[in-house]
Design brief:
There is one protein chain. This protein is 65% helix and 0% strand. It is an all-alpha fold. The protein folds into 2 domains: 64 residues, no CATH class; 31 residues, no CATH class. The relative contact order is 0.10.
């Protein structure tokens, strides 16, 4: 059995419930659910939170630490990976688009299809 812990949750139960109902992302819903359970007194131990959410207690610990250090905005922050850099240069893409545009202008493809194709590139 894990030990009990104390955490001061600044948001009201009502505010957490409202944010939980309007949250769109599953990861944010889980975190808001955790805070709501704690605020409403439904859970007293990190292990209970992990069991209810189906996550490891180390994940719960990390979430609670984020909340303690930065509040709700820090807990719900979604960091986006920068991703790999483009392998084709901007000049090559511009040249390719120019060549395709020239090819399309010499054919009977409709403007709608032409616009659709460029939206994919």
């Amino acid at each position: 059995m894990s030990r009990r812990f104390n955490i001061a949750i600044a948001e009201s139960e009502e505010e957490l419930k409202k944010r939980l109902q309007t949250a769109r992302l599953g990861s944010q819903k889980e975190k808001l659910q955790m805070l709501w359970w704690l605020k409403s007194g439904q859970v007293k131990e990190q292990q209970q939170i992990g069991e209810r959410l189906g996550t490891d207690t180390s994940t719960v610990t990390r979430w609670l630490q984020k909340y303690r250090n930065g509040g709700l905005s820090s807990l719900l922050e979604i960091k986006k990976a920068s991703g790999a850099s483009r392998k084709i240069s901007d000049d090559a893409i511009a040249a390719l688009k120019h060549e395709i545009d020239r090819s399309f202008s010499n054919s009977c493809i409709t403007t709608k299809k032409h616009t659709f194709w460029f939206s994919l590139t």
